[in-house]
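Sat 14:20. Reprocessing the chain from the morning session after the first attempt stalled halfway. Input below, unchanged.
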Amino acid sequence: MAAPLVDRNYHFPPFPPTPPDVQITPFSDFQEWGTRVIGADGVEHDGQGIPTIALAKSKKSKNKKKKAAATTGVKLPWWEEWFTGSGHLARSGVYDLTSNRVDRFHQAGTDFVKFHDVNTREYVKQIWLKFQIFVGLGSDGLKLGNSRNDDDNMSDDAFDDDEASSGPLDDVVVSPAEMFLDDPVQTIKIFLSSYMRSAGLMWDENKLDAAPRLMRFFVEFLLRNEAVPESADGFRESLDVIETAAKELPATPVISKTLPGAFSEACVVCWGSRLQSGWVRESDEEGEPEAKRTKTSLGDEEVLDGAKIEDVPDDEEMKDTTENTSWGASSDAQADSTGEVGWGGGGGWADDTDSWPDGKNPKPNEPEARIRPTLMDLLGPTALPHTHEPGIVEWSLRRLKSITVPDAAQDADGTEGDGAAAVEHRLASRMARIVLAPWLAWDPAHLEASAPHILGTSRGALVGDVNAPGHDMLKDEITLLVDPATLEASKLCVGMGLAATWVQIARVSGADNGGEESGGVGPGQYWYLEEFVLVLPSFWST
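Finished this time. Tokens:
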């Protein structure tokens, strides 16, 4: 039967007549009845006052993200897959609390893998393998294969006959599992810091992001299943460390790519490098007394009791090859190449050059020429090169104590004139100030290499100078000046450690102060950073 013809000329208006017994409400008088409100009794009602009924959630809702990802072809991050999967809130069963706690811990490791696909990503699998070794879970949770390093074979078996028989009979050997259960906080601190470095886990940004996430899943699994209730308080406290690690570990490669920053680079362009010389060391000769901290001054004189200053260059050697102006050197033909090593920039400390994953040495970034900033670029015409010069040059690791964002309105007072103090005031109003405190003995395995050093290119007073208070690298705080753009991009966190060559911005001898001292920071307390070496998380432990 043919479809009826449609009169395409039929349209409104005119509207058809209203049917009998029907009243049409004008739109202006229409009242919606579907709005849900919470009544005085705390129960949700619709617009007519009828209590609403909560609908049961669809069983398919928890897999909504997963199905959406499958439909669009976009793969979810592995931790979201775990959250949306059945294992996130799974309970593995009741543990026999009368059994040995280490046995229960081993069982929990096996159960964890049943509910969490640690093979979901290769880097997640590698972290879990290393963690098993570190805490003595051995191969119970996952087959390790033959890829582990000899120095990583730290399962419970490693603490059997050889070590137990080498000491007195009454020595008590504590397994890695017992150490973890005794002090989960400290163990996780070590795993997420120094162990990650030594095990080669910190060279991959994916692993820096994944390690805290994996630890959170595992610790929450232990708590939820009450596998080892004796350690529950420690497990809960360790979650705070994990939260800190989740913020700081992914920030470490960002910091290493960002520092030294534009202001520090401009200072190097202006005054030249301070890295040509060796550093002050304690005497290595047998029978010599340890170097005393009664150093007087550096520069033209070599006065250092028990130590030496190597290859101090004269004024001509210290000058940069570029022509200086009153605001810094010309940026023409200035080039730089950057590279990264570990949790830092262009270096590291002794015996770490081959600590790379899979035994492969890193390939340096392709050299990329770029124009380096000058002081004029950042500050405009400035008298800084005339009122100040590089002073003490220190290599050390320091802990970030505080960060002050520049406030031009607040710090502008006292900036009149071209004297040293006025210049410092202007710096404070334009640059962020990062206060750094000494962080000593952070690497017990390499105490000499990691100890603070004063480089021979230094000029100025050290501890014990009769004419000035002097700089004490073991006690004194320094204030690093950083341009705001670098600070914003760096993701620096208070508490983290930075190892670098720090250069003091010292007043030129005899320079006119030209005003009051700079905003509570005494002369010589402003520094810049020439060579960035290493960044450590605030919870670093060995």
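Confidence is low (pLDDT under 50) at residues 139-171, 277-366.
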